[in-house]
Amino acid sequence: MSNDEKLIDFAAERDKRIHDLNDKRLNDMRQVFEQVLPLGKGKKKSKSKPKKR
């Protein structure tokens, strides 16, 4: 092994790839949740109990 510059740390590369896949999955889930439950982009509806008389 005379060329140390060409060595690849497979564990580090795998960790990067797994991290990217997890980020992609997280972003997909976040988009789905934002479609179902929008986070304060519209006007807020107050859900208060009706007043008893």
Written account of the structure:
This protein is mostly helical and 53 residues long. It has a domain at 9-41. Helices cover 51% and strands 0% of the residues. It is built from one helix and no strands. The protein has one helix at 10-36. The N and C termini lie far apart (87 Å).
Keywords:
53 residues; 1 helix; mainly alpha
Task: Describe the secondary structure blueprint for this structure.
Elements: H1 10-36
How would a crystallographer describe the biggest sheet? none
Q: What is the first-to-last residue Cα distance?
A: 87 Å
- Low-pLDDT parts are none
How large a portion of the residues is in β-strands, by DSSP E?
Answer: under 5%
Please count the helical segments: 1
The number of distinct β-strands equals 0
Mean pLDDT over the full residue set = 82
Structural Rg: 24 Å
The helix-and-strand class reads mainly alpha
Please summarize what this structure is.
This protein has 53 residues and is mainly alpha-helical. Helices cover 51% and strands 0% of the residues. The longest helix is centred in the middle third of the chain and has 27 residues, at 10-36.
